[in-house]
Task: structure prediction
Amino acid sequence: MSGIDGTSVEIGPRPREEGERRYGARWRVGARRVLGTLLALNFALVWAAPVIIQGQSFRRGLDRIVRRAYGVVDGSAALRRFAARFVYRRDIHVDYFAAAVLLIISMIVILSALFAWQITFGSLPWWLVALYYFVWVGPGGRGMATAWTLAHREGHLSGGRMYRPWLGERVGNCFENWLGVFYGIVPYSFSTAHILR
Result:
């Protein structure tokens, strides 16, 4: 391609000369492999047991108890009216309320237990850390799935627009930007990924 003055203009990366080495390519590939291995080990050592055990216990009978308890909370007409009137802007979002309330309660209980133990005894025993991970995952994976689902839904309505103004203006997207941090969600990540036109 020629420029205005007739000189050659290159578009794109400069082609490599024959025999020229790409420095850093091996390093980048090696770094990616090391990172992938570390992430796989992290999952296998820390997260796999709670996910597998919770999933199997849910499939083998816990689902009957959990679904029944959730149905009582979600089916409460008074709770749904409260959510429609005071929490959400649109009635369609009321379906998220029971899951949100149960997730918030479980987070408050387990984090309070962790902080109280740490403050009282100065360290956390392995069984309490394991319990935290089991609560984090939730029955059948419902805990982490709920956190990510709510954060994703809030991302479609950034700036707290999913909630009534009294709540949305003060708290914003609480699962995406506040509580989601405990589930590995980067604040504002879903809002950024769902930029509105």
